[in-house]
Amino acid sequence: MNPLDAQLDALRGSRPPVPHNARTLAALTANPGCDRRALLDAAGVDKDALATHLGLPRPLRSSRLALDHAAAFEHRVTVHGGAELVRLLRKTLGLTIPEVGYDDVNSVGSDSPSPLPLRHAHTRSRILSAAKGTSAPRTLLDHPVLRLTVAGHQVYLEPDVVAFQHHGTFHIVEIKPFAVIDGQADSAKLTAAVTQAAAHVLALQELLADEDLPPERVSDSVILVNPLNFSNRPIATLVNARQKIKSLSRLLGRLRRLPELLDRLPPGTTFDLAAGPDNTPTRPHGELTDALAATRPLYTPGCRQHCDLAFYCRSEARNRGTTGALGTKVRDDTAGIDTTATALALTDGHLHPSRDQADITQALRHAHRVHADLLAGLA
Amino acid sequence: MSPAPPQEDADRATRAVLDQLRTLTQRGLVVDSPPGAGKSSLVVRAAADLARTGEPCVVIAQTNSQVDDLVRRLAQHHPDLRIGRLTAREHIVPADLPALPGVDVSDCVQDFTDARVIVGTAMKWTTVTDSPWPWAIIDEAYQMRSDTLLRLAARVFDRALFVGDPGQLDPFSVVETHRWEGLTHNPMNSAVAVLLDKNHDLPVHSLPVSWRLPPSAVSVISDAFYPLNDFQAGSPPEARTLTFPALGMRSHLDAVVEHAARTGWALLELPARFTHRLDTEAFHAALGLAERLMIRRATATCEDHPQGKELEPGDLAIGTAHRDQAHHIRALLAHHHPRLKGVTVDTANRLQGREFAITLVLHPLSGRSDASAFHLEAGRLCVLTSRHRHACIVVARAGIPELLDAHPSDDPIHLGAASKIPDGWEANHTVLAHLAQHTIRA
Amino acid sequence: MSLLASLLRMRAATTGNAVPTSQLRHLHLSDRPLMMLPLEQTGPAARPLAVMLGTDPRHPQLLVAPPSGSTAPMLGALAATVTAYIDEHQQRSEQIPAGTNRPARRRYTDAPQILVPNPKTVAYLDRLGRDLRFRPADTDIPAQHGVPRLGQWLTHFADRAEIPGSCALVPLTGFLTMHWITGQSPLEDEDLALLLAWIDPPRDAASGRDAALAAEHPDTHRPAGPATDARFDTEQLAPLFEQYARTTAQPRALQDLERLLAHYLQPTWDLMWQAYTLLHALPEADSTARRWNKERSVFTDFSTYLIQDGRPQAARDQAVSAAVGLARREEATAAFDAERAMDDPFARAELRTAGRAFAGTVTTVDADRCVRPKARRQWRPMLTVSTTDPVSMEPGQLLACHAHRNARYKICDIAPGSATTQVQLEITAGMGPESRPNYNVLPDPGDLLTFTAAPDHYRLPEFPPRNQTPWTHGGPPAEHPDHEGEER
Ligand code: SF4
Predict the structure, then answer these.
(1) ipTM of the complex in this document
(2) If one looks up domain B215-441 in CATH, what number appears?
(3) Which of B17, B437, C130, C262 would suit a FRET pair with B220, their CA atoms being 20 to 30 Å apart?
(4) Any ligand 1 atom below 6 A from CB of A34
(5) Domain ranges for chain B
(6) Residue B135 Cα, ligand 1 centroid: separation in angstroms?
(7) Where are the beta strands (DSSP E) in C67-212?
């Protein structure tokens, strides 16, 4: 075990790490400036369990209805050896796929206690033989298990995707349950889907690169399969993910500054929940919040949409009076001032502005005068 | 393979455009022009060419000053052509225009009975209801919104030559809606984007030589903002020099201007700080640099001035992202820097299409705590960093790379909408990586 | 949003109570709005789960769709209620005399107004309208005939909701935030329960902030839709849905679902009326009536369209309709901004902090000044205004002033001093005809006035008809741009 892994293990404590998947990687891009999240995720800390133990509302849960709907749609697309999928790829994207083999990696090693490495090995050999042209063109690979280097260690990605090779180029196909209506889809869901696809593209590129095959053989256009309009018939759309691939890869590269972040933590910092014999956490809250306080958050109201700790970080930000808790507009308007209290003290003349704060103070005092005029019925 | 000599290269491209124009089977032709690649000259030549074939030719530009400028060039190069300057009723044209040979000015297109070329703004042309002219030339077509083109194409012309700079700022609307996102005819897109989306068969040319940008700027500007069309510099490195006859004071400002004179670039990096828009320290720094350039009697040689020309305030520009920043700098300039009277201070928007010897640029991301789509827009940075003939000096707070990392990309994805090339985030990285070698800390 | 808004948000965050902002209502508020609270089923696109609606706060109608199978009966009932409500507003009309570019015509004296909790619901109604308007009308069941028409109306309303100043379909969160600023983030303001907790906390709450924290408690918090809460889905709906799928006694299962949803929706329903009461208490701004006239004209025109043409709106805009749509939105945005600046001191205050306006005292008035740009003498009075506001405008800028709406002032000179700035203005419009000069336009020295940047003159441009779409935009589109049901 390398020292970094050991440090991360200590941070996480006794529980097994929460595996990364494309979704968690995509969530990373939502707030890449947050050190707290970077550390917790790298260590595989179960943020949901942490939030629950701290007695906070958990903003993120998945709806069973949503999961059922997604599963039903995916089934529809991939059933019968991916017949529907092949039809879509042929027809909608104008691809000529002569012979199609369909291989569901999910069936591999299902009775093994740790099937992931097995499935990964299977995926790898299939992809490599396809890439080297040593096997029959087995074009569709469902549920491939890929591996991506994140912050210096390798994580398995279990994508609900299909990879297929065509004319020597690999494509990532994401099957998503949100509808495409008249060629438009929910922008947030779409962005998340493309970011996830980008993680898969990177993982596939890594696999090829490890074998000295050119990573350019993975297309940077991904294929989304969604329900069409208000039906459950699928439609396939080609989406250029180039930009997302670039920014995700840069972001993953940046996670290498992890050792630096770890070094800044006080010795002995851990997020171990100290599960008792019946698996209930026993760690005193105070110790956990101390550990959290040792990491630097970057709270924005948008955190609620992608992070389990949002309520914790929000109350922390509110208690500190961080301007960002009031939204990016306020944070921008008070740039250079950290807290609401300071901003108001400067406005009201209780604080003398430093040289840095002179401009913003002048503007705030003017706004205050304007408001006073308004209340007095002047102007 | 080294490219052909610039003049040859440029002539060949121009000839190709004009030749194809005469024999065009499609209804339109697009010419992409990088900064300072002789777009206006092409417009003038093409207009004269088309006018000589018989029917009058319509020329459409986006602003009054662009129109006036084209009229002047037309009159200068083709004194034999009768030119109509179509104006809005309330607009007063500069006094020199009506005095030019062969130029008529009127707000009514019927008045130009024998004009061979009629020039006006897009807005004015949309009010003309006469039957269409056979040919129009649309200048700065990337700055025009698609809905304006819709009105013009319906009434003003049959066929058109579209000329513009694809790297400039996209047209703008105050309306926020995703309703038309992904449509090939999205009215908020640029005229050329819609045109090419709807007419895949239109030939697209590009001008291969920037006569404005010095050799030091061409590769970075082309990499960052024009990844799809390569271009070369019109002048050899030795033709463009910048020297200071007056001695410096070894201040960091002197170091910056000297570095810029040597390399064509400099980044003056101020200590990291969130400042939002009004960063007086940065404003003073920009003005201080301009002041150094004047005090040290910066002297530039180029093709037009091989013996060297001492720069005047009018040769300098200070570019900003926001109007209030420009306003503040102008106010400071008026109060504290009488020597700089005549320096242009304006936003990227208004600097589009203009040219200066040296530009001082307040980096759009300087001092920001976040990077919104507005500040990341590739076109904004492109305009600011491609106005100069000799050097571009950027003033910025430290920390922009970290800011970019914390805001990977603000652009939401829409199905069917072509992804921006270049993407602003990427373009910013390219420019920063370049500036990293030219950084001087305050 | 302005710096003033940011300052007030910080104040609210500090005191724990919302701060009132604009005290004039810019949107007309009907005495009998149709309150609509729809829920969408998690999963299938735009499939309704339930709608609570009505004009009587005490007697809402609840329509519930079965978890699976046809939603047509439920939608038929929804169509009946909405159509009946719209019909009520088509009973009386008034004669409008001919204007400069419109012939004389009739206009309904009233128009429908639908209020929904939040912007997401507006988007949902848009999607639902898109689904319904292309449904076949030739069903055998008369009760469902109104469904495609309902789709057309919903599409129309959702389209109006994108026009600034329109009050046909209004999300209440957005309406409330025009008048109050809370101490939470704008994102949290989109939650009606939290927003109202800040603005109008229950009497027993110590502050708006405390009320919002209480309102957020997962055990009692109800998202105002259209999406249901994941926990509610998993713990309550999913078991009922399963029961529905298995049982033969489906009506019983539906009743259970209805009870559950009535309980789920009731708190939000009450909040919506609470919001209505708060908004209703605000006095209307001057220009609100003009926009209401416009709204009624639009309503009348669309009613006529349905009778005379009646085809469903296209799935996506064609080139011309998109351009027209953009122009309409731009015009409405410009007009709404300009009218608010004239009507509302708070809007002017915001503009002052944004550098788009300044307020000051008139110090000198040169009432007799004349200029002659060409041959004719023109009356061009000058005045000097002394202001302590930072003036970030340039000479030449045209200004408007709330005291004389039609007048225009041109900045001739700006002379910054140590504490005050002297701005010299020339009056360039609003002086009346030469024969009868309007001396009212002249302020008196000592008057305290606010000058705002004058709106650009905006006229709705003319566009070619659809069948003359030019080649640059792909030429005329296919005749009936119906929805493309199959794969494209
Ligand atoms: S909620 Fe907290 S930990 Fe999560 S991203 Fe936001 S600031 Fe970071």
Answers:
(1) 0.89
(2) 3.40.50.300
(3) B17
(4) yes
(5) 6-210, 215-441
(6) 59
(7) 93-96, 105-108, 114-116, 169-171, 180-181
Contacts (Cβ under 8 Å, ≥6 apart) of C429: C406, C407, C408
Note which residues in 179-238 of chain B have CB less than 8 A from chain A. Answer: 181-182
CA distance B371 to B374: 8
Cβ of B415 and A356 within 8 Å? no
Mutation target among B60, B176, B198, B332 for the C interface, most CBs of C within 10 A:
B198
- Tell me the per-residue pLDDT of B259-275, one tens digit each, with 9 for 90 and over: 999 999 999 999 998 88
Contact A29 CB / ligand 1 (< 6 Å): no
Ligand 1 center from residue A40 Cα (angstroms): 10
CB proximity list for C428: less than 8 A, separation 6 or greater? C380, C398, C408, C409, C410
Structure confidence by residue, pLDDT tens digits, B96-150 = 888 888 899 998 888 888 889 999 999 999 888 877 889 999 999 999 999 999 9
Among B150, B155, B323, beta carbon nearest to C320: B150
Cα of C144 vs centre of ligand 1, distance in Å, is: 49
For C274, the enclosing helix (H) or strand (E) is helix C250-280
CA of A229: how far to CAs of A184, A224, B414, in Å? 9, 14, 16
> pLDDT per position in chain A (379 positions), as tens?
577 778 888 888 877 777 777 777 777 777 888 889 888 888 888 888 888 888 887 766 788 999 999 999 988 988 887 788 888 887 766 766 666 677 777 777 767 767 778 888 888 888 888 777 766 555 677 888 888 887 666 778 876 677 777 777 888 889 999 999 988 898 888 988 998 899 889 988 988 888 888 888 888 889 899 999 998 899 998 888 888 888 888 888 776 678 888 888 888 888 888 877 777 888 888 888 888 888 999 899 988 888 888 999 999 999 999 998 999 889 888 888 889 999 999 999 999 998 888 888 999 999 999 999 999 886 5
Rg (CA), chain B: 22
As a whole number of Å, the end-to-end CA separation of chain C is 42
Q: Is C416 on the interface with B (CB under 8 A)?
A: yes
Mean pLDDT by 10 residues, chain C (488 residues): 92 95 94 96 93 95 92 92 94 87 87 96 95 81 83 95 95 96 95 95 92 87 88 90 83 89 94 96 94 94 91 88 91 92 94 92 84 70 91 89 90 88 90 78 89 84 89 82 38
User: What is the SS3 string spanning C440-464?
Assistant: HHCCCCCCEEEEEECCCCCCCCCCC
Helix residue ranges, H only, C344-422:
345-353
Flag whether residue C330 sits within 8 Å of chain B, measured between CB atoms: yes
Q: Do B413 and A187 touch (CB under 8 A)?
A: yes
Judge if the beta carbon of residue A311 lies within 6 A of ligand 1: no
Q: Can you name the residues that pair with B243 across neighbouring β-strands?
A: B299
A38 lines ligand 1 (CB under 6 A): no
Contact between C42 and A66 using a beta-carbon 8 Å cutoff: yes
Cβ pairs A/B, distance under 8 A: 89
A356 interaction partners in chain B (CB closer than 8 Å) = 273, 275
- CATH dotted code for C343-453: 2.40.30
Q: Is A117 on the interface with C (CB under 8 A)?
A: no
Q: Same CATH fold, B215-441 and B6-210? A: yes
The 10 Å CB-count burial string (b at 16+, else e) for A296-313 is ebbbbbebbbbbbbbbbb
CA distance B268 to B271: 10
Q: Which of A66, A179, A334 sits opposite C45 (nearest CB)?
A: A179
Contact state of A191 with B408 under an 8 Å Cβ cutoff:
no
Would the CB atoms of C322 and B185 count as touching at under 8 Å? yes
CATH 3.40.50.300 fits B6-210, yes or no: yes
Q: Where are the domains of chain C?
A: 3-313, 343-453
Closest by Cβ to B187, choosing from C322, C333, C472? C322
